[in-house]
Amino acid sequence: MNNIKNIGIGLLLTAGIFFTSCSKDFLDEEQTNAYSTAYFDTPEGLQALTVSLYGNIRWHFGFEWSYGNTLYGTDEFTNANDLTNEMWNTYDNRFGPVGASAATGAANGNATNPNALWDEMYYGIASCNTIIAKAEKVITDTKIRNRCLAHAYFLRGYNYYRLVAQYGGVVLQTTPIEGVVRNYERASEEKCWEQVISDFRQAYSLFEGEVFTYGKGVTWTKATAAHFLAKSLLFRASERNDAWNAAYKDADLKEAIDACSYAITARGPLTPNYSDLYANWTGVDCPNEQLNEILMAAGHNADAATVGRFGNRTYSYFAPQFSSFSGGWVRRGVWIGSMDFQRCRPTEYTYGVFDHVNDARMWKTFRTVYGANTVIAPNPSGVKVGDPGIVMILNTKNDNTYDGAKFGASVQAPTWTDAAGRLPEWNTGARQTATTGTLAVKKGQYVPNSSVLYQNGVYVAPTFKNQPICNFFAGINKTECGSRTAERGDSHRDVIMARLAETYLIRAECYVRLSQYGNAMQDINVVRARAQWKAGENRSYYNDGSQAFKTNPLNTGTSATAFTASNLDMNTYYLSNPTIPVTTAASDLTLKSFPNNLPAEDEAVMAKVGASTDKERAINFILNESTRELLGEWQRWETLSRTGMLIKRAKAFNAEAAPNIKVGKHELRPIPQTFIDGLLNDDGSNLSAAQKAAWQNPGY
Question: Which of the 8 DSSP states describes residue 214?
């Protein structure tokens, strides 16, 4: 096990793990207790502080903010019936610098405050500043010193990247603070990007190639720094900064391409099977967490003593409220992999942007079938444990198969197969595998609840609900975790924060901005080639991280029965594509031209957002491809803000965000009022109202 995952979080909580020699992996050293800040004036203390930097990134996945400030209010996700962070999605009058509470109209006390990211990022930056300031004086071994500095520059660059991406210009504090300081200056966004890029350049130059100093697959390397250097250069060259970035663009894009090329060469090729990144997660520290494609991850394990301040709660946020709309037939528990907190509901765009027939990512990502794991009386239809309890058909707008069918609670399904019974019935024998068996709903079988995306060409998915707002949708499986030992316990799987497929898309976008469309298409096609069905694959096979329950000590008795019943290893591919014959043939997603003559699903988006020039079409296609490849991977809001497409795409595709989102305001987050109110002038006086207003972003 990689002991880096045992490191607690915090500036003063250190791991006591030392670089004892260049050849010995210091992860094997023993954890010790915390020390005073004087410990950081020793080589051992400064090295331990370096290791503790990995704890800071766990924060991003520890609570409701994980999706609130990254996924809500975009084209991909909207809120379901749970309204904890509704204001981050709707941009209503509760969204502002003060933050929302139950007293000010929030649904509960868990709403994300704008100061959450601000405070935690500066917390990590303070640790980095200490390392950078002390390393030259404290550590005499050049290799060890450079390792410490590489990590400190990287995390400082990353934390400032997150701050500037959200808030625009922020306070640049690059030296340790002595005493209490309450008088700061806000740097321009241009100055902030200069600092971010400088830090990533430093880290890139100091990392020792792909030397996994802290354990393979978990730690940051030169490729990690290269990836984020490219992202920051691309951000500076993008539309949000067009008021001042003209002098940087060409050089930034060329440098970003070089940085991407290093990462791609050093860590390629892509993992062959998309499912290996997320769906095939089998348990704590499994081999799938060590894939070369993964450039950065927040590490977690099953040791409760080393969780630190923030565990992994991401499994809670993507599943629909299955226990409610199923009528209790599908109960939640540790065996099912997720809590049905119904936070992130996919939009119509999110379903529609996929090629439903040829893109394997759709069916390896969306969970469309749940098995009944209990029997609810009375039961005149004879549904048994292990029968389908929830079925979601993800058909397309031009499909008329289900126009006259009844969906919802406890319906019979006589029309879900064609007249010849072409679609096969449920296989009640051995569980299927990725290459054997093809399963669908049995003709005439009752299902406790079912839904469809389209009937009569109308998007009817939001009408399936038993709450005021839709709580019935296909969730995504990238965070499912059957390793939990309590229903509300922390997940033990790592959270991927950067991977090589995104690097390809970053490089493709840089090529687009330099009008090198052929090179861009080549990179895009690398990503799409992995997304194709491979010969021999069973297109109706589904799995996810719930399978980790098989190695869970709770996997006995009724819990084991519930696991088997809940997780049926199947999707609704053939029900959703009712004219497709059963096949295990390979598919083809290769672009033949770019940025014109695009696939139909992309042309529909171009028409909706009014993308007409080659550049507009190319960038919007990459945004579409990012949805298909990176859906739910904690960065959509910043990507849309960067490209100047946040307002347009949210208005086009997010019905809840559309009425309130405004140009000139919502491209940036509000500066936290708690920070502004704590500022003082040089003479110790409070800031005037005008001074406070000058600190705030436009419109707040």
Answer: T
| Torsion 406-382-442-453 (CA) sign | positive
What letter does residue 436 receive in the DSSP assignment?
B
Q: Which amino acid is at 99?
A: G
C-alpha span between 318 and 474 (Å, rounded): 9
Per residue, the 3-state secondary structure of 661-691, as one string, reads: CCCCCCCCCCCCHHHHHCCECCCCCECCHHH
Q: Are 16 and 30 in contact (CB under 8 A)?
A: yes
> How many Å apart are CA 347 and CA 350, to the nearest integer?
5
Q: How many CB atoms are located within 10 Å of the residue 485 CB?
A: 13
**What whole-number distance in Å separates Cα of residue 2 and Cα of residue 301?**
9
Take residue 269 and report the two structure tokens written for it.
Answer: 């090729």
Distance between CA atoms of 48 and 41, rounded to whole angstroms? 11
Look up residue 520 and give its two tokens.
């861009």
Integer Cα distance of 134 and 406 in angstroms: 69
Q: Which ranges constitute the DSSP H helices of 139-206?
A: 142-167, 189-206
Q: Do residues 339 and 487 touch, judged by C-beta distance below 8 A?
A: yes
* Cβ neighbour number for residue 140 with a 10 Å cutoff: 9
Torsion angle defined by CA atoms of residues 232, 235, 237 and 238, in that order, rounded to the nearest 10 degrees: 170
Q: Considering Cα of 353, then 358, then 363, then 365, what sign does the dihedral take? A: negative
- Segment 626-650, tens digit of pLDDT: 999 999 999 999 999 999 999 999 9
Q: Is 238 helix (H, G, I), strand (E, B) or coil?
A: coil
In 484-599, which ranges are continuous DSSP H helix? 500-513, 517-531, 557-566, 573-576
Which CA distances in Å does 471 have to 228, 279, 468, 659, 663? 36, 23, 9, 21, 30
DSSP 469: S
CA distances from 536 to 358, 427, 436, 540 (A): 14, 19, 9, 12
Average pLDDT over residues 582-595: 96
Helices (H), 312-370: 322-325, 348-352, 360-365
Q: How far apart are CA 3 and CA 29, in angstroms?
A: 9
- By the 8 A CB rule, do 660 and 649 touch? no
Q: Provide the pairing of β-strand 458-459 with 369-371.
A: unpaired
CB 403 within 8 A of CB 393: no
Average pLDDT value for residue range 676-698: 96
Task: Determine the Cα–Cα distance for residues 221 and 168; give it in Å rounded to an integer.
Answer: 27
Longest dimension (CA), the chain: 85
In angstroms, rounded to a whole number, what is the distance separating the alpha carbons of residues 532 and 379?
Answer: 42
Give the mean pLDDT of the chain: 89
Of the pLDDT bands very low, low, confident and very high (cuts 50, 70, 90), residue 6 is very low
CA 646 → CA 74, 347, 639, 652, distances in Å? 7, 15, 8, 10
Contact 636, 67 (CB under 8 A): no
The reported pTM is 0.93
Report d(CA 64, CA 344) in Å as an integer: 11
pLDDT in tens, 98-148: 999 999 999 999 999 999 999 999 999 999 999 999 999 999 999 999 999
Q: What are phi and psi of 125, to 5 degrees?
A: -60, -40
